[in-house]
Amino acid sequence: MEFLRYKVGRGRYRLGVRTPEGLHDLAACYSRYREMGLRAIPGLGVAFAQGSLRMLLARPGVSDFLAAVRLGGAHCRSAALREEPVAIGAPLHDPGRFIGIGLNYRCHAREVGQPIPAEPPLFAKWANAISGPRDDIMLPMNTQAVDYEVELGVVIGRRANRVSVNDALDYVFGYTVINDVSARDLQFRTSQWLAGKIADGFAPMGPAIVERDDLGPSQGLTLETWVNGELRQHGRASDMIYDVPALVSYLSHLVTLEPGDVIATGTPAGVGMSRKPPRYLHSGDVVRMRIAGIGTIENRFCTPR
Q: What is the pLDDT of residues 200-212, one digit of tens each?
């Protein structure tokens, strides 16, 4: 299944799920689920009211409801949307943690002249950076070196503390596409990368979160970026230095990962700063990113009005 946030008309964003039978409103699915006499899940109403997949994943017992949705049935068919959404937002807009991994593709490490890191380099993004898969992204006034990075996003599905590499995938809910937008001049002013990563809107995400079991092994995924129609990045997740199980296990030994936490797992070669001369983004540029099996995001970069 694919999980997304959508808006019909002028309403708030709502949680939706796409199955082979179509796009369904999750709150309506839950109402039918309860009408069929199935067990209530405390706190789910708040998650639906806030359009929060993070809150939904954190509720004890939600796996039973999602399993019922996965199986289909009358409660899902009757909750199918009768009109197409007018807007799709980031599928998860309020993570407790948004963790970035640097230099995690061999080809990218080579292109920037860096050795293979002995451990995954970590940085953070915050929820303010998250934007939707079709949103315009404002270029900050204090940078002249805004760059793109297509990344496989990992969404945690249940609490993970000190988990083994062998068990790590059991804690992954699903995958999405992330553009880890980076202001390179701000990023490298100090030894800490945070300043170049945290601007508003600097993490377009989407279009949906595809469940782990629906996607298969992440190592086979292809990641691509086009800027104004020109292919700039083409890489495979198999080139990762630390794959998804290794990253989840490693991070869970540093901090307890919670449902709805997001990990941006690094980018392949082809970023703007590695070009000679560097090719950074300017107002009017359109960046399109695709990960096969997950979907496509496309964002226009603009000068603030």
A: 999 999 999 999 9
